[in-house]
Design brief:
The protein contains one helix and five strands. The chain is an alpha+beta fold. The longest helix has 11 residues. The relative contact order is 0.23.
Length: 70
C-alpha cells in the first residue's frame, strides 16, 4: 500500500503553516475502511511486536471524525 492508496481525512496538504507538505500529523482511511494515523513517535510504553505508538493533536482527531461524519 502507498500513500496514494489512502484517503486523507485531515489537513489540506498545501504545506502552509508550521508543517511542510505531508509531514504534519494526519489521519487516513484505507480502501477497506481501516484507519491509518501519522504522528510523532511516542515512547509512553513498549507496544507489542509489529505495532507502534504515535501522538496526534486532538484537533486532528476531531477533524477526522467530522470528515467521516461520526
Amino acid at each position: 500500500m502507498t500513500r496514494g492508496d489512502l484517503t486523507r481525512l485531515t489537513g489540506n496538504g498545501n504545506g502552509n503553516g508550521q508543517c511542510g507538505g505531508d509531514d504534519c500529523p494526519n489521519v487516513y482511511r484505507t480502501g477497506s475502511g481501516a484507519i491509518v494515523v501519522q504522528g510523532n513517535l511516542s515512547r509512553a510504553f513498549d507496544p507489542p511486536e509489529g505495532e507502534a505508538l504515535v501522538e496526534i493533536p486532538e484537533a486532528v482527531l476531531r477533524e477526522a471524525v467530522r470528515a467521516l461524519g461520526w
